[in-house]
Write a structure and sequence with these properties.
Length: 146
């Protein structure tokens, strides 16, 4: 017993250090408030006339997979994500994705099939809608680096 008491200060220090490291690691691994409550709340600005038309077309043709306001679902990725900033995915990438479909490349949702029911005008409007929401959520043009 006397030997244990002699080592008590060292044991306390070791316990505190390991406890602190454990707490730090658990905070790093534990889900954040965003993860616990699902996707983060997006800021949806007052939309321009073109973007409002884009919202209607998006809700009809895109929201089932890409979620309300492009927030993503278990079927498709969020479009309101910095990977889709105009410097990495220019508007032309959206046109091609709708017209030709797109192979899975950033996410594990599978390939997106072509969407021939969406007109070019609707694509223009949908892009305006997505870009306005991106801007409202701090997603701006970033230089693409590989």
């Amino acid at each position: 017993m006397k030997g244990l008491l002699a080592h008590l200060p060292k044991l306390l220090v070791i316990g505190i250090v390991f406890g602190g490291v454990g707490l730090l690691l658990s905070n790093m691994v534990a889900p954040s408030k965003e993860q616990e409550g699902g996707p983060p709340q997006l800021r949806v600005p007052e939309l321009s006339r073109v973007a409002a038309a884009g919202k209607r077309a998006f809700d009809t043709n895109c929201a089932e997979c890409h979620g309300p306001s492009g927030s993503g679902t278990d079927k498709g990725p969020p479009l309101i994500h910095r990977i889709y900033n105009p410097g990495h995915h220019a508007d032309e990438a959206f046109y091609r994705a709708v017209r030709d479909g797109v192979r899975r490349h950033h996410w594990n949702f599978g390939d997106m099939p072509p969407q021939p029911q969406i007109t070019k005008r609707q694509i223009d409007d949908i892009i305006a809608y997505v870009r306005e929401i991106q801007m409202a959520n701090g997603i701006r043009w970033e230089e693409h680096r590989m």
